[in-house]
Specification:
homodimer, alpha/beta, 6-stranded parallel beta sheet, DNA-binding
DNA sequence: CGTCGCATCAACCGATCGTCTGATGCCCAC
DNA sequence: GTGGGCATCAGACGATCGGTTGATGCGACG
């Protein structure tokens, strides 16, 4: 290799960050910076212009998805490898849509991580097997693909708190009929038939919680 | 120090495991073994008799809580430091009750981890601030302290799937009246008033999902 | 300019839910 | 041996929910 691949690692868990950095350095990569939140990550990337950003999605303050969006807005050519614990639908979809180059779960074997970083630097897309499966099944089944609208999420959040349709209507300054309509759409989109199941599905998909 | 503290690290995430091991070795601890699941952890502890087991709770197969229980059953004097991502009620309570010596979240700063291992080896109890707060508030509020009975969890699981009271009764071979009674108790214990909110609370506490 | 998604509203009806009161049997702990 | 937690059951009532049908206004996109 001519010059080593330059990397910035962003994760709010110090232990995980140390682990990733250690693994990458041992493999001859050059880790030029580490960040504990999204804002730091953005600053470091702008300053150091690394080849790859290894990014955790769930971070305090500026989250991972927002980091990706801003980088793409800046038309940065950096490769973003998302390395996270969760593979909920909304996380994965949001990250890919935002423009992540790769998506790896933290339970991936070390060699996979190393290879993923290399591929990301080369601009290739890498996905964890679990993530790939999830995406594939999502494409196959056109049913429960739909995302909830902002208003629908708002309603569902209140439902999860035990709020009654009438009370939701009052809180949102709409009629009870409207609330019912929203709920009906929510049920359709989530593929359920009642509010309890809707809440459960929402948690499973990372929409709530 | 006379002889270094001997440690086994158990975590199913290779990256995290490497991170923890790296940090501990850099601090002069002797990491004598690493495990990727509970069964391996138990075997290593029995074979190597380390001073401290650094343990992730969520692992495939034999989970962390079960590992702790078995160690205590064996009357092992090993210190168990739980190091995990989650601080849901059920995880924390289960781990402490099982006999964990300490409970640290993965977002803890590196120096805290090092100090926690040292304290654990000395038999002292260490808790993450977040965990300590959670436990304290639990002790303060005698209300939502109660755990669900097995039967109640069973009912709630079905509720989360959108199952109707009547259908639940059929599935569990009891009358609908019984299901309603269980649900009433569930609502009381979780401090909610309807099934949707009960499901949400259960997810928040790690009872479901 | 038409179309589509989103948000809004109405009225009705049957099904379901949640609460209440009250009761029995079991098992474990104190 | 007497509580207390758990699981079981009954009947009945009012409140709430979910489905249905149908309709309007608005912004976006092509």
């Amino acid at each position: 290799m001519s010059s080593p691949i330059r990397i910035v690692v962003a994760d709010d868990h110090p232990v995980v960050r140390d682990g990733v950095v250690g693994v990458l350095r041992a493999q001859g990569f050059e880790v030029v910076g580490q960040a504990g939140d999204g804002a730091q990550a953005l600053a470091l990337v702008e300053e150091l212009e690394p080849d790859v950003l290894v990014l955790d999605l769930r971070m305090p303050g500026t989250g991972g998805v927002e980091v990706i969006e801003r980088l793409r807005a800046l038309e940065s050519r950096i490769g973003v490898l998302v390395l996270t614990t969760f593979d909920t639908d909304s996380d994965v979809v949001a990250a890919i849509e935002a423009g992540a180059t790769g998506y790896l779960l933290k339970d991936a074997p070390t060699p996979d991580l190393v290879e993923a970083v290399r591929a990301t630097a080369a601009g290739e897309t890498v996905l964890s097997p679990a993530v790939a499966t999830r995406l594939a099944s999502r494409l196959r089944s056109p049913g429960p693909t739909a995302q909830l609208s902002p208003r629908e999420r708002e309603v569902l959040t209140l439902v999860a708190r035990g709020t009654t349709n009438r009370a939701i209507a009052a809180k949102l300054f709409v009629s009870e009929a409207t609330v019912k309509t929203h709920l009906g759409h929510i049920f359709d989109k989530l593929g359920v038939t009642d509010r309890a199941a809707a809440v459960a599905r929402a948690y499973d998909r990372g929409i709530l919680g």
